[in-house]
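Repro:
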Amino acid sequence: MLMTGSGRKAAPFLFSLILLCGFGAGAQPAELVPGTAMATGQGSIARAWFTDPTTRYAHGALGDSIEAGALVLQDRAGASIWIVVPEDRVFEDIAPRLVSVSALGDAAMVIESDRRLGSRLSFYGLAGGQGRLLAATPFIGTANRWLAPIGIGDFDGDGVANEVALVAMPHLAGLLRAYRIQAGELPLLAEAEGYSNHVYGRAEIAMAIVDHGRTRDRILLPDRQRRRLVLMSLSDGRLREERDEQLSAPLLRLRQIGLGFEAELEDGSLLAGTL
């Protein structure tokens, strides 16, 4: 990674792994959970958003006590299908991510949290006019343990973008994990400890990117202290560090720009780099 500092204060930006729709405020659904965003897609799911705001899950990883009790998937004909989770669960997320993968088809990728078991990454889709769970990682297994997704890619180099990366417990152990996407429970491919992609209490998930464009996709993210930027790859069943760069201050945000990236640090400085 080649990095250069701008020597100027950074203009604020938001980066997320979803395509946010460009509707005006008047077009937002009335039941949209405060602090969350709607997503739009080009597949069978036209729009998706969180609804049924609730304070029944006291965790606050994203900065407030309001989470979602339901996910709405709207098909291309305009029909809205509600997916309501049980009373001991919520969607602890900022927005759905509309994705299309060969193993599942079109789906909404969301963070789902259980009062006893913590979080899992879930994929919900439409079938026969009904919403259903297509696939999910196992729950972390402990109450109030959260995860933050990174994205989908071809991390194993087989030519199919059918893996998903996330960080489990980014504020604690910081477990970078890669899973194979398939119907049902997702199998874990590899795990590496000591990384992060979120600051506790911040209402954005914006500190990791998937680098596309080589024989296999790679992951760029900081270590758990956010003082080192690391390029990770999956090979021989292991997640390995290819390169790293020390940072002069903790990382705050990261976004991809063409074949490179831009990093904003907590001191307001900007760094640009190439992958």
